[in-house]
């Protein structure tokens, strides 16, 4: 149980309103005579009630339920056996033992802010590093891949996963309607409907940056990079039955588990490992390194440790520090960069856009979001301006350039214009190497038997609630993923390969030679 007994009778100070006026009576509003009526100039009452009326801000459109804790990231100064400076000049990674303060928010995705933490749902794993060069946010999930590969589809996938707009119930029929028309989602679904789709709690799960980023070294050379967090506590998951038993007693077991572990001094820890690739298209691979529905095979791109993350402090106030914390994929520091991953680019617009609406245009002035390095801008005003950023000596000069005073542009850390030369026709096209089934099948084959059984059980339980057309198309996809998976799910639904052999590939779908061979076998 959380200890709420801090404090004591001594040192208790009188209540005031937000104008600093003492509150002499907090039990009775001001009225004409003891029985009323109330008067309109009742400032203390109106301030209290009208502030209360505005206590809620819009919850996050996704990842509404979550918990934030603090700690540090400690660099190893190396990436695997090599000095890290060969790959990135980001200062937080350079010296072994260097610590950077962090805030980490874990979350579920689809439910509202009071929903059950036992949901079958990806878990968010978002880290804000307060570095000397400003903030770096690494906004990831507990599963290594995602449902879609182009940001333009994000509102659709979320609408399908969120409650039905009429019944307000999460409907498998809507979810699998969308997924069955979205072959790139199969790899994610094979993960999500396995036990990994319900982590036992937040301390026993992995984290993945999912999207592909870049590292930039002092010479301006770039590498593609993927980030992974490995829990020193180990990975634990729940079956659907385990989750039902936990949910019957507690809707917020994962938040409770994390906060209580930290209170007990059992600080959870993760190791950050990265995979690196030279910065090009890698046409030798059967997938695109910028495709977030794919993992990079560990044999070819070995994960290499770069540091560790320790969480050791809970928030003082859930609203100020958890509801208002704001992460975004655009928040990078020198030595780290974006790739052309079409999800990453879309995400980078979306986060700060929603935060200007959800928290307010000055959300970066809030302590939990504020960089701990110097902030010097000419940005002024807007709702809830809390302070004026440092500028020059003269408060009059809030523009640049100026002969009189004010801020000037920073020097580039190295040579300007190191980025790639880009040329190409403006177009709307899928990436060429979609290869939607192969890695999903490999994932299935890597699972232990009980995980496969749970996956099949969960697919059947959900697909049984779907229209026959949707069931057939899903069985068709799962047969392309892996025979055994498609056959077992089909058996649970009473659908054999011969029942789906007539289905044509989806419009614009590209199949590999291997996919075609599997299709030919269906009849
Ligand atoms: C939260 C958009 C894909 C991880 C959010 C929020 C939006 C959003 C609008 C709410 C932010 C807020 O209110 O502060 C998108 C879009 C995506 C996308 C447009 C695809 C184009 C992803 C992917 C991941 C991810 C692939 C995992 C790598 C998260 C996490 C949060 C979040 C962890 C919660 C951050 C927090 O704890 O405050 N996303 N997202 N999102 N997203 Fe995404």
UniProtKB/TrEMBL annotation:
Q: Name one GO cellular component term.
A: cytoplasm
Protein species of origin: Thermocatellispora tengchongensis
- What taxonomic lineage is listed for the species of origin? Bacteria, Bacillati, Actinomycetota, Actinomycetes, Streptosporangiales
Top-level division of the source organism's lineage: Bacteria
Q: Which residues bind heme?
A: 351
Q: In Gene Ontology terms, what is one molecular function of this protein?
A: catalase activity
UniProt keyword Iron present: yes
Domain Catalase core: start-end pairs: 16-408
Q: Which residues form the active site?
A: 63, 141
Known cofactor(s): heme
Listed A to Z, the keywords are: Heme, Hydrogen peroxide, Iron, Metal-binding, Oxidoreductase, Peroxidase
Q: Where is this region: Disordered?
A: 1-37
Read off the InterPro entries from this record: Catalase, Catalase_clade1/3, Catalase_core, Catalase_haem_BS, Catalase_immune_responsive, Catalase_sf
One GO BP: hydrogen peroxide catabolic process
SUPFAM superfamilies from the entry? Heme-dependent catalase-like (SSF56634)
Protein name, UniProt field: catalase
């Amino acid at each position: 149980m959380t200890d709420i007994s801090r404090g004591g009778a001594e040192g208790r100070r009188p209540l005031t309103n937000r104008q600093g006026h003492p509150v002499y009576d907090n039990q009775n509003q001001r009225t004409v005579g003891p029985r009323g009526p109330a008067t309109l100039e009742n400032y203390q009452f109106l301030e209290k009630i009208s502030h209360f009326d505005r206590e809620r801000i819009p919850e996050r459109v996704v990842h509404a339920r979550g918990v934030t804790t603090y700690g540090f990231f400690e660099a190893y100064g190396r990436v695997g056996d090599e000095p890290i400076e060969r790959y990135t000049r980001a200062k937080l990674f350079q010296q072994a033992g260097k610590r950077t303060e962090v805030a980490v928010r874990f979350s579920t995705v689809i439910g509202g802010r009071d929903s059950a933490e036992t949901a079958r749902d990806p878990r968010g794993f978002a880290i804000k590093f307060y570095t000397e060069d400003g903030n770096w946010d690494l906004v990831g999930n507990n599963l290594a891949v995602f449902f879609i590969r182009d940001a333009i589809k994000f509102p659709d996938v979320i609408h399908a996963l969120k409650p039905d707009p009429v019944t307000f119930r999460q409907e498998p029929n809507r979810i699998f309607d969308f997924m069955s028309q979205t072959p790139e989602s199969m790899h994610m679904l094979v993960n999500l409907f396995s036990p990994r789709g319900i982590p036992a709690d937040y301390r026993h799960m992995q984290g993945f940056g999912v999207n592909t980023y870049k590292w930039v070294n002092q010479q301006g050379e770039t590498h593609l990079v993927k980030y992974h967090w490995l829990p020193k506590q180990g990975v634990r998951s729940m079956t659907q039955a385990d989750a039902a038993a936990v949910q019957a007693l507690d809707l917020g077991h994962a938040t409770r588990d994390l906060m209580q572990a930290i209170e007990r001094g059992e600080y959870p820890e993760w190791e950050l490992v990265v995979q690196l690739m030279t910065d090009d298209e890698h046409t030798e691979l059967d997938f695109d390194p910028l495709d977030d529905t794919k993992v990079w095979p560990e044999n070819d791109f070995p994960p290499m440790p770069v540091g560790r993350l320790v969480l050791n402090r809970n928030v003082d106030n859930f609203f100020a520090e958890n509801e208002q914390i704001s992460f975004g994929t655009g928040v990078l520091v020198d030595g780290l960069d974006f790739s052309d991953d079409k999800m990453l680019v879309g995400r980078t617009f979306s986060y700060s856009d929603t935060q200007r609406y959800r928290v307010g245009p000055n959300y970066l002035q809030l302590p939990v979001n504020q960089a701990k390095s110097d902030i010097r801008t000419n940005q002024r005003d807007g709702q809830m301006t809390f302070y004026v950023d440092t500028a020059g000596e003269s408060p009059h000069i809030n523009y640049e350039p100026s002969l009189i005073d004010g801020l000037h542009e920073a020097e580039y850390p190295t040579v300007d214009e190191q980025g790639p030369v880009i040329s190409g026709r403006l177009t709307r096209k899928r990436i060429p190497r979609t290869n939607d089934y192969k890695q999903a099948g490999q994932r299935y084959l890597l699972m232990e038997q009980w995980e496969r059984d749970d996956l099949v059980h969960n697919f059947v339980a959900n697909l049984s609630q779907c229209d026959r057309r949707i069931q057939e198309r899903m069985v068709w996809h799962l047969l392309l993923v892996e025979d055994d998976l498609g056959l077992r799910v089909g058996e649970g639904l009473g659908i054999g390969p011969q029942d789906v052999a007539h289905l044509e590939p989806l419009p614009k779908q590209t199949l590999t030679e291997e996919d075609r061979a599997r299709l030919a076998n269906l009849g």
